[in-house]
Each structure stands twice: as C-alpha cells, then as structure tokens.
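Human: We require from you a protein record containing the residue sequence and its fold in token form, and nothing else.

Assistant:
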Amino acid sequence: MSTPTTDVALVTGGAGGLGEAVVRRLHKAGTTVIVADLADDRANKLVESLGSGAVYSRTDVTSEESVNSTLDTAAELGTLRHVVISHGGWGVAERVVNRDGSPASLEGFTKTLDLYLVGTYNILRLAAARMATNEPTAAGERGSVVATASIAAYEGQIGQTAYAAAKAGVVGLTLAAARDLSSVGIRVNTIAPGTMHTAMMETVGEDALAKFAANVPFPKRLGAPEEFAALTEHLLTNGYINGEVIRLDGAQRFGPR
C-alpha cells in the first residue's frame, strides 16, 4: 500500500492581488501552498500570517533554473497537484506608432510577452513534466493547471498591443496545452478577468475606480480577488472542465479606450 502524501499547490504571483486570494483560499481548504513570487517582503508576511502549510519560494517565472528550484521545493513538501499561474507586475502602455510619429519600442513588447506568455509557458511545461510522474487519482488525473489571461485578449484597448498580444497568446495556449497533456492526465484551464479590485488598482484613485465600475453591466462594481480565487478552486477541482477559457468580468466588454 502506498503512503499518502500531502497535496501541494504552486501559485505564481502569490504574494499579492489575485494570487494572494488564491493562496489564502487553497490554504484554508487544507492544501499546502507555495507562494512563488519575487516580492520578498509581501510574500514573507503572507506565509507568516498563514502559518503551517504555506511556504515562500523566490521564483523568476522566465528562468528555467529558478522554476525548477521551486518545483524541487514542492517535491520536498509533498505531491504537486495544482498549479495556478497568476503572476504580473509589468506593463507598457504604448501605441504601435506614437503621437510624435515614433514606433513603439520592441523592448517593451518583448518584455511584456516574456513575462505574461513565455513565463506562463515556462511554468506550464516544467510543472507538467513533474506532475506527469504523479500517481493518478481514481479518475486518472495527475494534476490541474489554471492560467490567467485577460479580457484584453479579446478587446485590447488603445496602447495595449503588447499586453493584449501576450494575453491572447495565453488564451490560444489553453486548448492546445490541454490536448497535449491529456495523455498524462493533466487538465489546463484559463481565467480571463475583467477589471478586478486589487491593491494595484486602488492606486488609480476613487474617481477612476468609480468610472471603471460604471462600465461593468452587472454587478456594477469591480471584481473581487476572492471571486477569482473561488473560480480558480472550482477549475482546479472540477474534473470535467478542461481546455476552457472563462471570462470573469460582469459582462464587461472593453471599449477602445
């Protein structure tokens, strides 16, 4: 008889915003959670507040060596069953051709794709290779992954070419990855959030927040990180949802601006 092991979840961007909400929800459900981030202070405070069952692992999602080190930590803690890819922290607002006639910077475009798309793929490929060696559940599942896109993938606004392209790449990756990984029993789904009420969003000020909320059909407010976390947990545990991208946006559709 095999010895039961602890189920482990890895959450990139887990030190704040949407990722923190996911960390707190999964930890409350009894899962050991690895906070994979670069924000040392926030991450350390978070795991300290949660206590046993939460670990911080400093992780650069674009680095194979860094990600593998974090996956080694997961293996020491138990069996990696769930991966949530929700990192952020970089953005460039730039038109393809600026008002002064200059072209957008290629560096800004490639850096944005490196973080949001290449970083997502890097986590996915390396984590999936580890999860593929897990003992399957009775249903044949070895692991599940939830990635994060954005409704900007569908309705990119002026100045969002880099971000929209990166998030559209995550959307396109979802079904193909789910099909790739079906042979080893790993599911892949993606959430495409609209305007979410994170700490970063609060920096724009109350007037701007009210304007954003007014553009959401119903409910007329920004989304809560806890709602993102609830949907994430459902996608991680509902064994028949696979290859799906779900919008979490209150029926919002971005306009040009």
In short: Residues 7-248 form a domain with the Rossmann fold fold (CATH 3.40.50.720).
